[in-house]
Amino acid sequence: MASIKPRRWALGCGAAVALALSAAALAAPNDVGVASAIAGDVRVQNNGAKQAHQAVLREHLALADRVSTGARSQLQVLLLDKSVFTVGANARLTIDRFVYDAKGSSVSASVAKGAFRFLSGGRGHAGAGSSIKTPVATIGIRGTIIDGVVGPEAVAIARGENKVPAGLAVDPAVATLVVLRGPGALARGNVTPGAITVTAGGTTVELDQPLLAVFVPARGAEPIGPFKISLPGLGRLNDLILPRTAANLPGGGAMPYYPPGTGGRLDPFDPFSDPNGPGGPNERPGGPGYTIPGVPIPPTRPAPNPGAVPAPQAAPAGAPGAAAPQDSVPPPVGGKPPRGN
Amino acid sequence: MRGFRFVIAAGFLAVIGAPTGAAPPGSFNAIASAGDNESIGMALARRQIARGETVDALATLERVIILHPQSMAARLLHAGVLCLADDRQGSLIEFERLRGYSFSKAQWAEATAPCRARTGG
Q1: Which helix or strand (DSSP H or E) is residue A37 part of?
Q2: What pTM was computed for the model?
Q3: pLDDT tens per residue, chain B (121 residues)?
Q4: For chain B, what is the domain count?
Q5: What residue spans define the domains of chain A?
Q6: Which are the contacts of A105, defined by CB distance < 8 A and separation ≥ 6?
Q7: In a 10 Å sphere around its CB, with 0-12 CB exposed, 13-18 middle and 19+ buried, how is residue A306 labelled?
């Protein structure tokens, strides 16, 4: 018997250690996910806390925690069901409700300001009842990729869209632009074609095709749309969601110039052609930048080398990032963001 | 006593020896931390693409791009995955912006394959 007792004790200790480790690995009851990517100034104010603290990578986030980003900052929140919120600079995000069990998941979140993207987790089956609230609208989610922005940037983008009436009364503090990005009906993989509803001012609008957008200009106003967002509008929205990333691109993140008459098509030959391959734009008459006559893009750069940051190029007059002519795309709101970390 | 020592040793190693990056592949922690390293993140994204987890691959690549904004390779792959999600216009914008960089033919071909399959080009 004496030789058995230590073994029992050891097994007990092992079991206790295993349980402790398992418990540590599991999320606390109110945990909804983690801060999976952080760039710049990102703060978290835990529910009930008087002050916000600087977020750290993979910090656990709980229900009702208020997450905010500063200027030129980005955050990605990975929820336990693998859904993802990405928010850009000067954004405010709160996860209000999160249900995740064997039957599925659903999430309700609030975006008070700033640009955001939501990607449904797992195989894109966001559960019934998932929603994102802004000060002026409620977005109902059904397996989807959504981009949106709340605030003056929404107004700036909307004013560039033909379907948004000129002279529209707006509240820049809360105006909301929402764009369905996908997945589209031709998406491949284990995905469900995306669809959303946007409810505002007592009216609900359904968006069921990629790039359909709605704009809600003020509290109590009905949604304007759906309309198909322009390429420049889509690009500007993307830059708001990933501002630091945009700053690393040629032209400092400014949108490419779309010459009149191109119908928004960026390359009149083949938009996916290898720029350095036979017939590619870098080998056509005019060399690099030929795809946009009269508007040079930065010269060909060395092959990407992890850790190496390409040097920025000053935008020449008339080029992306420079003073825009009448029918070109204006620079992003707030001007050119500084690059890099 | 040998069993006793083994259990204690195993428990000790489990407590102090388990680095964050040692999470089982596919687990939440592994996915959350994959973006820390550009190569690991891109490898995970490629596995997700192969499994048909298109939206998850987009999320993974966005994670890499946020943490490594200089990674043009991740951006290029991300542009191609947008095509997989049938976001062709978003993909066009990304490819156009990346034309200023010189990628290898293999990189460009891999990224644009989903877009070409869509168009038959």
Answers
A1: strand A31-39
A2: 0.74
A3: 455 554 444 443 333 333 344 566 668 899 999 999 999 999 999 999 999 999 999 999 999 999 999 899 999 999 999 999 999 888 988 888 888 787 888 888 888 888 886 544 4
A4: 1
A5: 31-234, 254-299+314-341
A6: A79, A80, A81, A83, A98, A99, A121, A122, A126, A127, A130
A7: middle
Task: Answer whether A288 sits within 8 Å of B100, measured CB to CB.
Answer: yes
Cα–Cα distance measured from residue A321 to residue A328, given in angstroms and rounded to the nearest whole number: 11
Q: Which of residues 45-84 of B touch A (CB under 8 A)?
A: 49, 51-56, 58-59, 62-63, 65-73, 75-76, 82, 84
Alpha-carbon distance of A124 to A144, in angstroms, equals: 6
| CATH code of the domain covering residue B44 | 1.25.40.10
Pinpoint the alpha helices (H) of A242-313.
243-246
In a domain, B4, yes or no: no
Among the listed residues A139, A231, A128, A143, the one whose alpha carbon sits nearest the alpha carbon of residue A182 = A143
Which CATH architecture fits A31-234?
Answer: Sandwich (2.60)
B14 to A21: CB separation less than 8 angstroms, yes or no? yes
Residues A70 and A28: beta-carbon distance below 8 Å: no
